[in-house]
Amino acid sequence: MGIFGSMQFYLFIIMLSMISFASQADEQKLNIQQAIDLVLSQNYLLAAGQAEVDAAQAEVLRAKRLHWPTVTAYSSISRTDSPLQAFGAKLEQARVSTNDFDPANLNNPESVTHFQTRLEVSAPVYRGGAISAGRQIAGALADATIAAKQGLEQKIIFEVIKAYSETLQAESQISATRKALQAAKNHQQTTQALLNKGMVIPSDLMDADVHLLDVNVALTQAKHARARAEDRLRDLLGIDFETHLLLEPFELQINFDESDMASWIRWATMHRPDLIALQQQFKASQSTLVERRSAFKPQVAVKAIQSWNSDSIAIENGNTTLAGVVKWNLFSGGADKAALDVAAAQSTQLRYQLQDKQQQIRREVMDASRQLSEAQYRRQARQQALKQAEEALRIRTLRHDQGLENTTDLLMSQAQVDSVRAEYIRSGFDVTLTQAALFMAAGKLTSEVIQ
């Protein structure tokens, strides 16, 4: 072969390998479980929801620490010739002498430098129930945030299932339309042959040509529908838009009978995340009433203060103060009463919203179950209709080949088959989506139910 021939051969092999690798790198195989795991791990909305959960849990920790004592350290330096402050500084420094009681020195003292270091420990004893109410509020709101995130997860899982199913549906439609296109080409060729034999008229060939163009348009539309669905799925999963997705088919397994309606509704009214979130918000509003009422009660705290005073930087001349403090707000111009009224009205609003949410959930579960039943019946009907339409087309095709059927009727029959096949494909994915919708209406649409 020669040196240059060998080099060209090896370069050709390398280029083929690179092209094959690039082709593989631009494709990603995916099943529905992998898609859901992917969206749960890197979806931006879920990440934001988790950050909100973290903040709520940190607020719970903060509320639990409010009854702990606080320890504060102070350090200050001052220099003054104020008669009162100068004498007081000397007194705290234990430097008062008889000369300091001379009226002239009392009225016109020399400037005194005062260094003070102080350590203060304070602890609440009673705040009218505000501290325990604060803990309950924070805990309930944290539970509400967790439930809200779970509800968001179910909504995003549904969106993934929808985009995934629409992509598969579009792929099936492309496959079916390609078969229809081949059938249209065969029919156009057959019509041309029959025209050559004088068995049909030129308008029959024109009809066949128009039908072929229509099927080509339908194929283009199916490809565009697939591209739009894949774009939506890539957007949800955070996958680069240049990556082509190779999706594996899937089915949701659900055993639902209308006699099970009561148990599904009962489950939904106990476990649906948005209902739980609203219940926890109502619970927090009840605790808020307790917290607002504490403003009308006395508040008791204790303090311990240790201070050191000197005319230089030194820890000396210490003294200790122990104190109990009682604070009672006797009048605030009605502001506390107004705040309590606001909390009471908000709690009442949440109670009514909670009752409405329970009724809404019942309606949504019943409606989703009815839509699932309709989709299943429609699937069976479309399957039977497709069999009949295909058989009618087969008979008309045989009659057309024998010159016993006109082209217009045959094309109408072919168009009917194409339409029914598209409806049959759509009905299958409608069953999947209505199953997912029923799971979500009941609050059961988690990654565990996907197979």
Rg calc: 40 Å
CATH class: Mainly Alpha
- Distance between the ends: 56 Å
Looking at CATH, which topology would you report? Outer membrane efflux proteins (OEP)
Number of strands: 6
Order of helices and strands: HEHHEHHEHHEHHEEHH
Strand-residue proportion: 5-15%
Task: Please state how the strands of the largest beta sheet are arranged side by side.
Answer: 2-3-5-6
Write the layout of secondary structure elements.
Elements: H1 3-25, E1 27-30, H2 32-42, H3 44-64, E2 70-80, H4 83-92, H5 103-107, E3 112-126, H6 130-196, H7 202-237, E4 244-247, H8 261-271, H9 273-293, E5 299-310, E6 318-327, H10 335-401, H11 407-441
Helix pairs in contact: 2-6, 3-6, 6-7, 6-9, 6-11, 7-11, 8-10, 9-10, 10-11
Task: Please describe what this structure looks like.
- The protein has one domain (29-75, 129-301, 333-449): Outer membrane efflux proteins (OEP) (Up-down Bundle).
- 68% of the residues lie in helices and 12% in strands.
- The chain is built from 11 helices and 6 strands.
- Strands 2-3-5-6 form a 4-stranded antiparallel beta sheet. A two-stranded parallel ribbon has the order 1-4.
- Helix 6 packs antiparallel against helix 11 (407-441).
- The longest helix has 67 residues, at 130-196.
- Mean pLDDT is 85; it is low at 18-25.
